[in-house]
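Entry type: protein chain
Record version: 2
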Amino acid sequence: SNIQQVDLTTNSFDADFYVWLRWSNPDIDPTAGIEIMNVYQGWALTTTPVYDKPQRQSDGSLLWLARYQGSFNAPLSLADYPFQKQTLKIVIEDGEKNTGRIVYEPDNDPVGLDPHITLTGYNLGQPRIEFGANTYESSFGEVGATREDRTYTRIVVKIPVSAPATSGIVKIILPIIIVLVASGLGLVIPATYVDSKVNVPITALIALVAMHFVVSASLPQVGYLLMIDVVYLLAYATVTTMLAGAVVSAWTLKLRGEDEATALQRRFLVWANAAFLLSLAAVLVLYLR
């Protein structure tokens, strides 16, 4: 019914949802063993039964309904940041009775999403629910426990979320392109203005480093290379190429004259931009495929 936030630094999210169980055998109580397996902060988990006791239905079955509120752990990947796609998971298991005694089966329309739910910074997809079993490798000290004794029924609810592409383009990619355009303007300056041609790409390089630092500071430290890191590395290489073009054109001006220097710096501008655009397209295809 609600997802308050997704915390990339702790690989967790806050959610509010309902769970129901319906069964026919009055001699069993499946509510006693139901457990949320991926709780992030156990002390903050709130379980509120809607009924004081299971309600008997018109077909003779018993219905139990409860509301859960808390933080839940879900591995989140930042590899394709800022165009990230995540899957939020809620894992439910019977922690007392193995599959020989309790098995979860889907009801009609077993999972649904409140049509009015919103999540800041993300688009919500259609949730999915998977029914299965989980076998523990440990016997937890039980003498003579078999593999069947260690197999428990399990439900996994998956909620896909994705960051809007427009936001990532406008807030992160577009500023990089603007800085590269500003750096490229340095190679359009007449060849005789050597100081200006060199200062423009140097200033652009400093700006890119500052922008990269701000983006990195807002993300958790990970052991792999993010897509945005690769894009910034390409931007660094492009600006450095433009700086090299300014330096080479300065020497060409001294040795061969202004016309040769102007033609050379324009070639540098075309090559650098073409290489950046092709490399950027390759990175997007690699990370977003």
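Comment: The CA atoms of residues 131 and 155 lie 5 Å apart.
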